[in-house]
Fold:
Amino acid sequence: MYERLFSKWHSWDDREMFWDISRPGVYVVAHSRQNLSGRRFSWRCEIIYVGMTNAIGGLRGRLRQFDNTMRGKLQHGGADRVRYKHRNYRTFRKTAYVALAPFRCDPSTEHPKDLRIMGDVARLEFRCLAHFAERFGALPRFNDKKAAPKYSRTNHSLRR
Structure:
């Protein structure tokens, strides 16, 4: 379900290779020792985060915020939870993959058509989270705000 909406998996380092990364949309991050690059998107237990953006910067901007947080510059709450577990950025990026579901709309307008599409983006994120929870019995690990602490709230992060 929803698989056809997503791109193939790309390695974290190749995330900006998507032709439509400037659009709003939903993104899925997986952490796997198995190389997922170029494989068709599928729901898998290695998915650690599902997110979305309706910002003018599109998926590119949101993934940059995720990446910046993983590098130590806090800009993304979900990535802050991922960083709690995956503190070594170099190791993380070698085993991280992303798939995108971009939407064709202009988030800078208040045109009803664009507003409806942006609503569809948010709806897809929640539907993906629900689908994952039904399939695997829980949210992706770092979407679970109660069970996944943030790196920025640890004593370790304060010692830097």
In short: The beta strands are 10-11, 25-31, 47-53, 96-102. The chain has a mean pLDDT of 94.
